[in-house]
Amino acid sequence: MTKRHMHDINVLFDSVYNWADSRNLIEDGDPNRQMLKVIEEIGELAGAMAKKKDYAIIDGIGDSFVTLIILSHQLGFDPDRCLFQALSEIEGRTGKVVDGVYIKSEDESNS
Asked: Which of 82, 45, 40, 48 is nearest to 61 (CA)?
C-alpha cells in the first residue's frame, strides 16, 4: 500500500494554473490542442496499466489530471465546478458492475 498524500485540492489547482500560466498555456493556449494532450496522457496511462507499472500509472493519472485542469481553465470553467457537477449527476445513479465495469440502469435497458 502506498503512502497517502493529503493536499488541499485548491492549492493543487492553483499550482497547475501557475505552472500553465508561466508557460503561456492559459493566455495563448489552444483548447483543441490541449484536448489532444489530454488524449495523449490517457493513452500513456493505458500503456502503463497494460504493463502494470505502478509508478507510470500514478504519473499517468497525475498528468491526465493536469491536462484536464488546464483544459477546463482554457475553456473558462473551474475544474472543481466540473467535478461537482459530475458528482451531482452520479450520486443518485443506480446500476451494477458487469465484467468489472459499472453499467448505469438506464444503459442496461438500451443494450
From this structure: 45
Distance (Å) of CA 103 to CA 49, 88, 93, 110: 22, 17, 10, 11
Domains by residue range for the chain, with CATH: 9-108 (1.10.287.1080)
Structure confidence by residue, pLDDT tens digits, 43-83: 999 999 999 999 999 999 999 999 999 999 999 999 999 99
What pTM, to 2 d.p., does this model score?
Answer: 0.83
The more confident residue out of 106 and 40 is 40
Q: How far is CA 96 from the centre of its chain?
A: 23
Q: What is the DSSP string of 47-63?
A: HHHHHT-HHHHHHHHHH
Q: What stretches of 1-111 show up as alpha helix (H) in DSSP?
A: 9-22, 31-51, 54-74, 79-90, 105-108
